[in-house]
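Q: What would this chain look like folded?
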Amino acid sequence: MLDQGAAPPATENMAPKPSGLAALMRRKPVERLVEEGGQGEGGSLRRTLSMWQLTMISIGATLGTGIFVVLGEAVPLAGPAVTVAFVFAGLTALFSALSYAELAGTIPVAGSSYSYAYATMGEVVAWICGWCLLLEYGVSVAAVAVGWGDYLNELLDGTIGVTLPAALSAPPGDGGIFNLPALIVVMLAMIFLLGGAKESARANTIMVVVKIAALVLFCTIGFMGFKAGNYSDFMPLGATSIGAAGAILFFSYIGFDAASTAGEEAKNPKRDLPRAIMLSLVIVTALYVLVAAVAVGAWDWKKFEGSEASLAAIMNDVTGQSFWGTLLAAGAVISIASVVLTVLYGQTRILFAMSRDGLVPKVFGKVNPKTGTPRVNTVIVSLFCGILAAAVPLGELVNATSIGTLFAFALVNIAVVVLRYTKPGLDRSFKVPFGPVFPVLGFLCCGYSMYSLDMITWVYFGIWMAVGLVVYFVYGMRRSRLATAEK
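A: My prediction, written as C-alpha cells:
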C-alpha cells in the first residue's frame, strides 16, 4: 500500500485509480489528447487536408437537403421575412461555431466535442457527448440516404421517364421492402472513404462545387421571375414570426462541426480548423439568404402554404419548362451524396477517438498503414448505416438527431468556459470574443431550441441516453484507458 505522505508516482501505470464519483469525472489531459493525435492501432492517420478541403467538408455536411425543402416549412411562418429568419438562425449557430473554432484550434483531435468534453468535464460527460454524436451522425446518414432515393427517382423520371419500383426505393413501413438507392449511396461513400482522407476530400470538393452551382443556377433562373411586389408587406405575420421560423431553420445549419472531426488529418489544424469552421458558416448563411430572397421574390409567400413548394417547382413555374427542375434534381442527388460522405467520415473519426480511449472496442481504432484510414471502422459503420437506411423505418428517431446535436453543441459551449478557467495558459490559435458571454449565449440558444422540440423527441432521446449509460457502466467504464492506466 502506498504511504499516504509519499509523493505521487511518476508513472501513469502506478497511479492510484479513482473510484465512485471520481472515476466518472476523471479527465484526459489536453496535452495527452494532442500527443496521441493521429495514432491508432497498427498505423496513424495522415495529415493531408488543406484549409479549403476542411471548409468543403463542413459545407458538404451542412448544405444538403435542408435548403431544397425547408422553404415550404419556413416561409408560411415568416413570410418574406424568412430571409431575416435565416440570418437569425445563422447568428444562433454562430455562437456555437465560435466555441467549436476555439476548441478545434486548441485541441486539434479527431473526437470533436467528445474529446473537448473529456478534457474539461470528465469521462462520463464525454461518453454522453460521444453517444449523442453516434445518434447524430449515424441516424442522420441513414435519414439523408433515404431521401437520396426520392431525388434519384425524380431525376430518372425527368431524364429517361423511368423510376425505381416502390418496393426497392423505400424501407418497410414506408410502402417498400428494401431501399436499394439508400444502400447504394452509403456504399459509394464507403468506397471513397476507404481510399483515404485526401481522396475523399477531393471527391467531396467536386460535389460541393456542383451543389453550390445548382443553387446559383436557381438564383439566376428565379431572378428572371422576381416581383418586387412580393416584398411590399415584408413582415405580414409580425416580428415574433421570425423567431418561430428561425427555430426551424436552425437545423439547416447542423453539420458545420464536421471539420472538427478532421483535427488529426489537417495539415495545419491550429490555423486551419477555426478558419474552416467560420468560413463554412459564412458561405452557407450567404447561400441560404440569397436562395430564400430569390424564392420569395419569384413566388408570393402565400403560395408556399399547403403547397408542394420546392426550388424545382419554382424554377418550373418561372420558366414553364420541366427541364430546369430536372437539372436541379441532379444537383440535389449530388448534394445529398456529399452529405452522406462527410457525415459518414465524421462518424468514423469519432468512433476512432473513442476506441483509442478504450470506451468502444479496439477494432474501431485500427488504422490501415497503406491508406492511413480506419478501414475496419469505416466498413462496419457504413454497413450499419446502409442497412439502417435500407431496411429500418426510422420515423421519429430522425427528430431525435436534432436534440442529440443540440446537446453536443451545448456541451462545447460549456467546455470553452471550463477550459478558459482551468487552462488559461494554453496556446489558443483562436479565442471566442467577449470572454464567456458568447459561449453562454450559445448554450442558451441550444437550450431554447431543445425546449422547443416535441415531447416525443425528448422521449426517444431519453431512451437513447438510458441505453448509452448502461453500455458505459457495463463496458466503457471498466475498459477506459484512464481506468486501466494503459499507455
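The chain is about 65% helix and 0% strand.
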